[in-house]
Amino acid sequence: MTALRSLFQPMAARHGLGAACFIGIAVFVWVVFLIVLPQISMLDYSFRLNLPKPDIGGPLDVYTLDNYAYFFSGNDGQLNTLDIGILVKTLVAAVFVTLIDIVICYPIAYILAHSATGVAARLMVIGLIVPFWVNEILRAFAFRVLFGATGLINSLGMGAGLWDQPVDFIRADVALYSGLTYAYILLMVFPIFNAVEALDRNQIEAARDMGASWWRVHWRVVLPIAKPGIASGATMVFMLTAGALAAPQILGGPSNLWFTQLIYQWFNESANWQRGSAYAVILLLVCIGFVMMLMRVFKVSIGEIGR
Amino acid sequence: MTTKDIVLDHVSIRFGSYTAVDNAHLTIQGGEFFSFLGPSGCGKTTLLRCVSGFSEPTEGRVLIGGKDMKGVGPNKRPTALIFQNLALFPLMSVAENIAFPLEVRGVSRKERRKRADELLDMIALPGVGDKKVHELSGGQRQRVAIARALAVEPDILLLDEPLSALDLKLRHHMRTELRAIQQRVGLTFIYITHDQGEALTMSDRIAVMNAGVIEQIGDPESVYNRPKTSFVASFVGETNAIEGKVVLQSGEMVTLETPLGPLQGKAAGGRRYKNGDSCYLFIRPEQMELKADAEAPNTIAASVTKEEFEGNSRILFVSANGVDMRVTRVNRGGSDGMVTGHAVTFAFDPAHATVLPHGQLAGA
């Protein structure tokens, strides 16, 4: 309570009581009603049984670990390889998409921050932003059209004689990876741009003057400065990719399920909110754990990311 | 001709229609401490980038050790550049910074560390190798930047206003230090500065630049005492510029008719003037003496507008017939009673006054 008061009082002194109250209430509503309460109710759901309506609140309505147990061992006590496999596959795919985004966005951010000027820079920024005016579903279907059996890429490839049978990009998940990579480019470019922009150009020239090759300049001078930005962008892209639903639904191959689709099925098709909640909590915890582990490995602190 | 000599052979650098450096032509001897002195935007940094290889001259040639440097990149030249803001790498330790040029050349980790420690000893900062750059003071960073530049044993060190970020005391201390390091390692130093104090105290020779043109090259004393252009006279050190027209020249002595009456000075470089030529008479504030005797030649009667106390000296701002001048006097303790409006008479020795053709003044 004293910590809150010490936050509130200087703000009231600087911006007036009204503004301070508004910020205080807005933050409270945001945190409690939009973040804490829904998550707690999901958590609560995840520990309950999927009971018929009359039994709710009755003697059968007890807390249980059943829903979590199901994820690990299914109904038959055997290891639930199917669901665990889908989770692992989702994480691997999300890592893959994140890596592609880093590879694509690092040069873009660097050029945007240090080489592009005036019109070129503005065009680059517009080029990055405009695609996001198109809504998610439309964008996903556009990629389906692009990569479909009779799509643009197959017609071009076959027209140019590169291959003579339509390649099934959908089944190979090429369309899905491309769609997800494309969807989150902006979230990767801007944090890296922010970090790299702070780099003093003289440091690059100094390194060059000392004979450093371009890759060493990047490896030793630019990358260390970009690291917190990369970490911040990678966290966002990874979390959003692992939690994406529309793109896997539309672009995913028929034999491939994303973990979010599994959650969706529990909620909607099986009408089992309790198990769906447990699966959602599992996804959240695994993602957070995975990100924290990587941050440890790459020696990045939360504070650095927040900058 | 040694490997440390630099020749700028009629070098001009243009950006579009803008001429940043106009026909610079000079030779810098090996082992010399050579300064380019000029106001910001005079082209001195552009010229330095041209020597370091970050840009190429539009016309003319840069020769280092007798070899034409055309097409030779910055990393292939025997030069090392120290940037204005030092450009130390903030995320590397001090030792890693100093050894970076060695790392680039594939020197082993152990050897790098040994060399970094040697260089730290040389700049009198032993034992700071494992610190981060931000843990050092301004002056220490300065010295680390020098050590990093010296790590690859260049023939020529290029310094782009490296002292400008330091506070006054440290700046003065670093002048002595830089000069001492230069004499110890025996390299050619090319020093860029807009601070005439730095140029005068450290340099063997100075090139004074204005608007892309080198106006004068010479040792500190000749640049200060015998300026060749109005710009040099007014830029290097404090001076009083009094406008006038030539009425008489006998030998070196020129008499000008000025708003303050006839004044005499020496014609710089034995120049001949015609009567009626528009000229400036330059006289240093420290050459002006307060005189009670109003009959001596070169006497000016003026009134005090204000006085500035600088500790070791007092600067008296005086005005006479619309001409503002300053007189520097050594502070001998006690008040001198110079209040605003006080009438004073002062005189100067014509041998210490310089007459130069009318031209652009610094800061004008």
UniProtKB/TrEMBL annotation, chain A:
Query: Where in the cell does this protein reside?
Result: Cell membrane
Q: Which Gene3D superfamilies match?
A: MetI-like
Topology class, membrane? Multi-pass membrane protein
Keywords, A to Z, come to: Cell membrane, Membrane, Transmembrane, Transmembrane helix, Transport
Chain ranges passing through the membrane: 16-37, 86-109, 115-134, 141-163, 175-196, 230-251, 278-298
Q: Which SUPFAM superfamilies match?
A: MetI-like
Which family, according to UniProt?
A: Belongs to the binding-protein-dependent transport system permease family. CysTW subfamily.
This chain belongs to the protein called ABC transporter permease
Q: Which organism is it from?
A: Roseibium litorale
TrEMBL record, chain B:
Keyword annotations from UniProtKB, A to Z: ATP-binding, Nucleotide-binding, Transport
Transmembrane is among the record's keywords: no
- ABC transporter domain: residues covered: 6-236
Q: Which Gene3D superfamilies match?
A: 2.40.50.100, P-loop containing nucleotide triphosphate hydrolases
Which PROSITE patterns does the UniProt record give? Answer: ABC_TRANSPORTER_1, ABC_TRANSPORTER_2
Pfam families (UniProt xref): ABC_tran (PF00005), TOBE_2 (PF08402)
One Gene Ontology MF term: ATP binding
Query: Which domain of life does this protein belong to?
Result: Bacteria
InterPro entries to which the protein is assigned, alphabetical? AAA+_ATPase, ABC_SmlMolc_Importer, ABC_transporter-like_ATP-bd, ABC_transporter-like_CS, Mo/tungstate-bd_C_term_dom, P-loop_NTPase, Transp-assoc_OB_typ2
Name the family the entry cites.
Answer: Belongs to the ABC transporter superfamily.
**Could you tell me what this protein is called?**
ABC transporter ATP-binding protein
Which organism is this protein's natural source?
Roseibium litorale
